[in-house]
Amino acid sequence: MGGLYPENEMLPQVLKFPVQTQWIGNQLFVIDPLNNNDSLKPKDEILAINDVPVAAMVDGIYEHIVAQGTIKTTKNHVFNTLSSSLIPYALGLPDSYTVTIKGVKKPIILNKANKDIGPYWDYLQYCKDQLCFEILEDKQTALLTITSFNYYSWNNLPEFIDFIDKSFKKIEEKGVKKLIIDVRYNSGGSQSSAIHLLKYLVDKPFTYYSKADFDGKMGKIEGEELIHPVKKGYQGKVIFLIDGIGNSTTGHFMSLVKTLKLGTIIGEELGSNQFCSAGSTSCRLKNTKLNYYVANNTHISTATSLPDEKGILPDHFVSQKIDDVINRKDVVKAFALGLLK
């Protein structure tokens, strides 16, 4: 169904759930009470909404959120982004909301939303562009942030190649021996960009795809041939940061990072893996006129030993707790820096 954003736009403001929430583990917390700050505060735990236990409500919502295999981290991010609309749909578009708060005896009737709510983007990284590079204060560690692989040979691939080439040139010039590659929030893109980055990290030739099928294919495509490393690749320690948003090409990329043992992986289960359906045929529902999409090609990396139903798993599972969310603390990055020390 795409990203549920049309459904969000269709929902009138007055019907939206009037509190910004965050689902963490199996608990629903208030992170911003908005115009209900007279009765709610950040960190309040919501146990039920309109007498429906939140655990049951979320289970029902998750049946309608697209994710690969049995991966739940993707669903968590989608829910937290669009909870103000998903909650109303799950409860049948009620005219009012009453919440049961842990530690509070009486249910609280909420004020209606007085401004448009959602989508809520919980970006922790400070990277205005999709590609960022910096050498940290210790002068020994570099941070390479890549929030998109959406760079194609017929469009803007030279921009990505130039960024990667210049970044690794600086790494070599400064003698950096510790590198953090942050691919959180990266929903994918082209194999060309992922392959170019891998060329700097591997020390021997590799093949990117084990399978690439689509209508009209004429011979092998990029990634099916043997790929050689750059002449002066990176030889230091590498840490990769991942999350449940990582899909498509990010799954291919991280599957090869995993099987080629290119570094330590930190974060939560990735939203994808070595198996990826791509491309799409767009269809439209007759009554609502909403679009839905059916994948029309298949790409699988050479990391075929990994399970198809799970996302790429980190070596160290690290995720935010409610205090971290409210205080805007990037615990994944902090853990990586601690590990490097």
Short structural description:
This protein is of the alpha+beta class.
SSE inventory with pairings:
Layout: H1 5-10, E1 20-24, E2 27-32, E3 45-49, E4 52-53, H2 54-62, H3 73-90, E5 98-101, E6 108-109, E7 131-135, E8 141-146, H4 157-174, E9 178-182, H5 191-199, E10 206-207, E11 209-214, E12 226-227, E13 237-242, H6 249-259, E14 264-267, E15 275-278, E16 281-284, E17 291-294, E18 297-301, E19 316-317, H7 322-326, H8 331-340
Helix pairs in contact: 2-3, 4-5, 5-6
For this entry, give a set of tags.
single chain, 341 residues, alpha+beta, Pdz3 Domain, 2-enoyl-CoA Hydratase, Chain A, domain 1, 2 domains, 6-stranded antiparallel β-sheet, 23% strand
Spatial extent as radius of gyration:
22 Å
How far apart lie the N and C ends?
A: 44 Å
- CATH topology of the largest domain, by name, is 2-enoyl-CoA Hydratase, Chain A, domain 1
- Total DSSP helices: 8
CATH superfamily of the largest domain: 2-enoyl-CoA Hydratase, Chain A, domain 1
Oligomer: single chain
H-E string = HEEEEHHEEEEHEHEEEEHEEEEEEHH
Level-1 CATH class name of the largest domain:
Alpha Beta
CATH architecture of the largest domain: Alpha-Beta Complex
Question: Count of DSSP E strands?
Answer: 19
Q: Which regions have little confidence, pLDDT < 50, spanning 5+ residues?
A: none
Indicate the mean pLDDT: 93
Q: What is the makeup of the main sheet? A: 6 strands, antiparallel
Please indicate the count of domains: 2
Helix percentage: 25-40%
